Amino acid sequence: MQPSLTVPATLDSLSTIAKYVLAATAAADLDKKAAYRCRLAIDEIATNIITYGYGQAGYEGVLDLQAEIDEQALTISIEDTGVAYNPSQAQLPDEDQLKLPLQERSIGGLGIYLALHEVDKFFYERVGDKNRNIFIMYRSKPT
């Protein structure tokens, strides 16, 4: 198990989160493409938690990240006590919308779409007063 990370729920924490994720992907021996995809997904969800789950709701708090590596996968979870929100239930852009030029697309949903499609598995659960977003990346080589 990797050490956990707790950071303030502010946009300034995103670089610290990215370093944590990249260290975890390196420890899991993920290739560069998988590491990038994992970092992108977590960055998108963390940004949404900070912006909407805390900021726009007028809350302050922290993000708790935990990385676990086993023979099959790297699992990274983010917990927060912001507004309850399940990214899996968001209205995501469909294939036709994604083909439109940027100026013709509806606003919203692209970051969550990228996050959910960049990792091998994504789960959300509400545990007490906490949101838990779980990202799973399969490892290409066993240890």
Helix content: 25-40%
Q: Given the C-alpha coordinates, what overall shape results?
A: globular
**Major β-sheet, in short?**
5 strands, antiparallel
Radius of gyration: 15 Å
The strands making up the biggest β-sheet line up spatially as: 1-2-3-5-4
* Category from helices, strands and their pairing: alpha+beta
How much of the sequence is in beta strands? Answer: 25-35%
Distance between the termini: 14 Å
SSE succession: EHHEEHHEE
Helix tally equals 4
Short description:
This protein has 143 residues and is of the alpha+beta class. Helices cover 36% and strands 25% of the residues. The chain has a five-stranded antiparallel β-sheet, with helices on one face.
Write the layout of secondary structure elements.
Blueprint: E1 5-8, H1 14-27, H2 32-55, E2 62-69, E3 73-80, H3 95-99, H4 110-118, E4 121-127, E5 130-138
Antiparallel strand pairs: 1-2, 2-3, 3-5, 4-5
